[in-house]
């Protein structure tokens, strides 16, 4: 009770008023990293320390501390995160970025419905980012009509046609047949 606090929550509030999450990250680092890595934490930074802790938690006694500390010192933060991700999943990940933009409350239902519909068509295992990319690609395909390239629109329409349930396919075909005659 060095700090004269009544609870752990009060301790966190006093020592980490700006971020409880950082306190939990530091606890994870302390719990999983070996002492030699913890000593060098100030040099590599706590963000890289958190990534090191992920590998250390998985490898336990077989954690190659020297190699991973060297990588943490030498690599930029994002590259190091990708290296850890590759180590943990066995897959190369594409660099990513979080994009923020403002939506009016009236726009949110439209955007959400478009993303949900795309997820149903593409498979619910796809990320929201992938669904948004496909929505944008479809929009761009339609925009290419202005350049006189109707082939892009045709391919887009055919792609979406195959996702229609049976009854909607028949309705669509009746409409197209009626318009063609």
Q: Brief overview, please?
A:
The chain has 181 residues and is mainly alpha-helical.
Order of helices and strands: HHHHHHHHHHH
> How many beta-strand runs?
0
Number of separate structural domains: 2
Contiguous runs where pLDDT drops below 50 for at least 5 residues: none
Write a structural description.
- The chain is an all-alpha fold and 181 residues long.
- It has 2 domains: 8-89, no CATH class; 108-180, no CATH class.
- The protein contains 11 helices and no strands.
- α2 crosses α5 and α5 runs antiparallel to α6.
Name the features.
single chain, 181 residues, mainly alpha, 11 helices, 0% strand
Question: Layout of helices and strands, plus pairs?
Answer:
Blueprint: H1 8-15, H2 20-32, H3 35-39, H4 41-44, H5 46-59, H6 65-74, H7 77-89, H8 108-122, H9 128-143, H10 150-161, H11 166-180
């Amino acid at each position: 009770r060095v700090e004269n606090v009544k609870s752990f929550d009060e301790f966190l509030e006093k020592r980490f008023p700006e971020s409880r999450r950082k306190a939990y990250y530091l606890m994870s680092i302390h719990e999983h990293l070996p002492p030699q890595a913890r000593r060098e934490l100030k040099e590599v930074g706590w963000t890289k320390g958190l990534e090191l802790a992920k590998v250390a938690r998985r490898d336990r006694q077989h954690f190659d501390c020297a190699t991973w500390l060297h990588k943490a010192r030498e690599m930029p933060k994002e590259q190091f995160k990708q290296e850890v991700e590759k180590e943990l999943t066995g897959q190369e990940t594409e660099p990513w970025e979080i994009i923020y933009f403002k939506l009016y409350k009236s726009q949110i239902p439209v955007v959400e419905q478009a993303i949900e519909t795309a997820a149903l068509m593409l498979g619910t295992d796809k990320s929201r980012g992938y669904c948004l990319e496909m929505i944008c690609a479809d929009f761009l395909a339609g925009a290419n009509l202005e350049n006189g390239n109707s082939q892009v629109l045709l391919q887009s329409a055919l792609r979406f046609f195959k996702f229609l349930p049976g009854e909607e396919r028949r309705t669509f075909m009746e409409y197209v047949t009626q318009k063609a005659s």
